[in-house]
Amino acid sequence: MNIESQLLDDLKSAIDRGQAAGEIITSQQHDEYIRIFRELFGPDTLRKLDGESLLKTMHGRLSSDSRCLSYWLEFMNNEMFATNAFGGIGGGSALKFGVYQRPTDGAWIGGKGTNPKAITVDDAIKIARQQRDELLAGDKSLSELSSIDDSDEAYSRLQELMESAAPELYRDGWAHKYWFLTHPDKLDDYHSPRYQRFHLYKLLQMPPDRVGILDGGAARFICAGRFVAIARALGVPISILTSALNRRTGGFHRFWRVGTTEGSDGESQWPFMRDGNYVSIGWPNSVPDLSPYIGEEKVTLKDRIREWLVPLHANSGVASRKAGEIVKFAREMAENDLVLACEGQTVLGIARVSGPYEYERGLHFPHKRPVQWLLLDSWQLPQPEGPRTTVYELGRNGENLLALERKMFAEGVSSSPASHRITARPAGAAVVMQLPPLDPFVARVDGILRRKGQVLLYGPPGTGKTYLAVRAATELAARQCFGKTHSMLAEPERAEIENPKGFVRKCTFHPGYSYEDFIEGLRPETVAEHLVFERRAGIFKQLCADAEKASDKYFFLVVDEINRGDVPRIFGELITLLEHDKRNGVITLPSGSHFSVPSNVFIIGTMNTADRSISLLDVALRRRFGFIELMPDSSLLERRKVGELPLGPWLDALNTRLRLHLKRDARNLQIGHAYLLGQPVTSVAEFSRVLREDIIPLLEEYCYDDFNALSDILGPSLVDVQGARIRDEMFEPNNEDSLLQALAYEEMQSFTLVESTELHDDSDDAADLAADEADDA
Q: DSSP string spanning 332-394?
């Protein structure tokens, strides 16, 4: 196996950073997770089971601990086993497992995803038995594979053996994940052939079967040897390699070719696209602005566009194909996808999609997608692919994808997608300049809100959840309501957004918070010296009423500490209307009044996972929210130090110790970076106060008076185990040097230390950031 040395260095760096941040598991965690899984569901366990016991072990969902195989493969995520560390199989119907137990009544459901049906226990057992036999047969084939042969030939033979051993399961992602977990040294944990091939191209390798990423019939096992070989070269388990690949590439994205001329001899629109930071397509007089129709079903939208195109084409089949291309451009092309602007087979530029569909009247090609240009260089695609189409998804010809990735690698263009999004302006808004793209975090919030209507920011204390929630809401409101960034707003505009009755409103849940506070309830009033009770709208009902009166504006509610309230009781009937496709539907409240949630209302919630795990949230509510996890981010403390102690590496080392010694749910009990950012810590005295008054009391609570554990985390110089106390004398002003020496943990040696420079002021940081971005580009 040949792989660029620079790629190996990049992967080593990604692994080191990911493990230091707790985002990639260690080899020890990997081995422990695998051991636990094999004990519970390994071949030896399944071989001993039969009948209803086998069925419930594989697919039962009613037990309180949910310890069935299918649950562990898709959802299990705690201190015993983190399934998300071994590749995801989420999405789709529960019938992807062939059979499942309905949680409401315990009935067994079989059939196909589009036609589920109740089946008998005996029929369910037959399915589980057949699956068990194929899982064991596949395990046997993997056991016979040489542990030192990672050649393409060996894995091509493995593909044939697996197809023969498991004719019903070899195509299934969940079965592939099972075989990976029982043989983590022989398979990769990309459980989709599309993802496997995507990452091989990112590694500048042609898949051994030369199949593109769009081939739905691609084999799952034939590419595994490539990942096995790279993991061995790095000396890490394969799942750690794939986690690093995910970090390096930013996740899966698609590749598109967009033509820049109208027909074969039309005038080129490339200069306008290049200079305007967009790609666009034509039909200015036949296809109007699609913004009002984007939310329609794909088939409905395509039929609508086809009717507009029929007068242009004598062949209705051509009109249908062109309508499909327009739908792909307006709906399917997604943020972070790569686009090649082409004239024939000549590539003029490579860009990353940075925002949703737009329409600009007056352009010859008025249907637009904003992009960030990565490379403006003319070169040829090695193989013809979609030469007569305006919009074409690349991926059927592997040579073109490989050439694209090699071109980007040679030019030093990052393969990690930027998460920039330019929010569409409100109709009629006057904008005198192009707004800068949203920062990656706000762009991610924006994407979830557009898709779900509400998002929950969750994570340990001190990770900036409330700050980020408010910042995202005010930035999105400023852009949508005024066509400006929040920093550009005049004071009256800012007041319109941030006042208690403005576009961004806030509330905090607590144990006493009620339905009456949130939706509506009776409140006492004094009228003519008599006490009466009047019905009064709660904060959310009032916000919805205001949003209905200003349907062209966006309204945001930031709900802080959402898990501290009795969420099902507070939300009440609202739980039905939160779903994006049920917005504007009407329900009757207990008071008899009618209520609906407009589509221009968005909720951003925050949740401290040190108080309560996300898994304990009401299931109905959980399904209606999108989620963003916020973990400690030491990179925000880059260049910051007190004395000779670098704060970023110190925080990483402290959290590494915390995860090691607290064990149970320790990941959610880490210390966030905001403790050192709220009021920037620049002196030893300031750092000493934050440590003694904010961080140590939190650690004492986590340790439940276990001063041995506290000493393991903070160090024996700060903790008197025998006296069961913190050594307060270490925090006195004359002991600053001793305090810093006590906090210089050994683990910090494995982290990158800050440069020996003074802290810059804000203007210096801004200049550095601009320079870094210029270098990256």
A: IS-TT-EEEEEETTEEEEEEEE-S--EE-TT-SS-EEEEEEEEE---EE-SS--STT-SEEEE
Question: What radius of gyration do the chain's Cα atoms show?
Answer: 29
Pairing of strands 454-459, 601-608: parallel
Mean pLDDT of 102-120: 83
Q: Are strands 379-380 and 346-353 parallel, antiparallel or unpaired?
A: antiparallel
Cα–Cα dist 155/53, whole Å? 35
Q: How would you classify the pairing of strands 719-720 and 530-537?
A: unpaired
Q: How many residues does the chain have?
A: 777
For residue 328 the two structure tokens come to 């792909």
Contacts of 451 (CB under 8 A, 6+ apart): 580, 626
Long-range contacts from 316-321, C-beta under 8 angstroms, 24+ separation: 321/389
**How far, in Å, are 112, 204, 265, 393, 459 from residue 401 at the CA level?**
35, 9, 27, 11, 38
Q: Are strands 255-259 and 338-343 parallel, antiparallel or unpaired?
A: parallel
CA 689/CA 409 separation, integer angstroms: 47
Separation of alpha carbons 55 and 130, rounded Å: 11
3-state secondary structure of 736: helix
Question: Collapsing DSSP states into helix, strand and coil, what is residue 41?
Answer: helix
**Crossing angle between the packed helical segments 173-182 and 121-143, to the nearest 10 degrees:** 50
Half-sphere exposure of 508 (CA within 13 A, CB side): 4
User: What percent helix, strand, coil does the chain show, rounded to 5?
Assistant: 45, 15, 40
* Residue 447 and residue 234 in contact, taking contact as beta carbons nearer than 8 Å: no
Cα maximum dimension of the chain:
92
pLDDT score recorded for residue 749: 52
* pTM attached to this predicted model: 0.57
Q: CA geometry: angle at 110 spanning 106 and 115, to 5°?
A: 115
Render 419-434 in DSSP notation, one character per residue: ----PPPPTT---SSP
Q: What was the pLDDT predicted at 211?
A: 83
Q: Which of 160, 184, 181 is nearest to 170 (CA)?
A: 160
Under the banding of pLDDT at 50, 70 and 90, the label for residue 191 is very high
pLDDT digits (tens, 9 = 90+) for 195-225: 999 999 999 999 998 888 887 667 889 999 9
Answer whether 731's CB lies under 8 Å from 692's CB.
Answer: yes
**Adjacent-strand bridge partners of 313:** none
Q: Is the pLDDT of residue 695 over 80?
A: yes
Q: Is the confidence at residue 123, as pLDDT, over 90?
A: yes
